[in-house]
Write a structure and sequence with these properties.
Shape: elongated
Number of helices: 1
Distance between the termini: 61 Å
Order of helices and strands: HEEEEEEE
Structural class: alpha+beta
Length: about 120
């Protein structure tokens, strides 16, 4: 490998790192609320600005979601793998926590609302 090849490789690695930081940190808006769905049906919508504990109990199992200091995380779940409890707290638009055995999705939504036009009505 020549010296120029090393510079080119370093450039691409740095560009990839900057792009990843941009999309993961700077490119997402702060969320306004979380939407909890179970088996594709909306269970509830909760603002991230109000601290609370949400217990979701259904035919698939029991989950406890905590909203605290503007972020949401899965505190407890009775699913076999408890993978949903390993997610980092979510705060930014389109971040989500998924509990596949319980068919539960917690997703952050932002302040931007979709407007419908005259055709969509």
């Amino acid at each position: 490998m020549k010296k120029r090849d090393g510079y080119l490789l370093a450039f691409f690695l740095i560009a990839a790192a900057v792009t990843a930081v941009w999309f993961n940190v700077l490119g997402k808006d702060a969320g306004e609320r979380i939407v909890v769905t179970v088996d594709g049906e909306e269970f509830g919508m909760y603002p991230l600005s109000q601290d609370r504990v949400i217990d979701v109990e259904n035919a698939f199992g029991v989950n406890r979601i905590v909203i605290k200091d503007g972020s949401a995380y899965m505190e407890a779940a009775d699913c076999p793998d408890k993978y949903c409890m390993t997610y980092q707290p979510i705060t930014k638009t389109n971040q989500s926590i998924i509990c596949l055995p319980h068919r539960l999705v917690v997703q952050v939504e932002g302040t931007q609302y979709l407007e419908t036009d005259g055709i969509a009505r």
